[in-house]
Amino acid sequence: MDQDHRFDDEDYPAYSMGRAAEMLGVTQAFLRNLGAAKLIEPQRSEGGHRRYSRYQLRLAARARELLDQGTALDAACRIIILEDQLAEAQRINTELRRDRDTS
C-alpha cells in the first residue's frame, strides 16, 4: 500500500497499544479486555505488539462510553456490533438507492 494512502485508511493499524490507550484515556488492560471480549482484534507488529486502527479506536471509545453509563461489557459489545451492522446496512441501502436513481 502506498504510504500516503495509509493516512486515509481507517483500517490501517497505526497505533501501538500504549498510544491507543493514551488517546482514549483508558488503560492497556481495558484494550486487552475488549480483545478478550472479541470486540476488537488488533493486528500484530512483526515483534508481536498489538497495533490498532482508527476504526478500532472508535469502537473502543464507544465501549468506554457505554461502560461509563453502567452497561455491562458483554452488553456494550453487543450494542456496538449491532450499531456497526446497522450503519453498514444503511450505507449499502444508500448506495443501492443512488445506483437505482442514476440508472
UniProtKB/TrEMBL annotation:
InterPro entries associated with the record: DNA-bd_dom_put_sf, MerR-type_HTH_dom
One Pfam family, short name: MerR_1
SMART domains, sorted: HTH_MERR
HTH merR-type domain ranges (all copies): 14-82
Highest taxon in the source lineage: Bacteria
Name of the protein this chain belongs to: Helix-turn-helix domain-containing protein
Organism: Sphaerisporangium corydalis
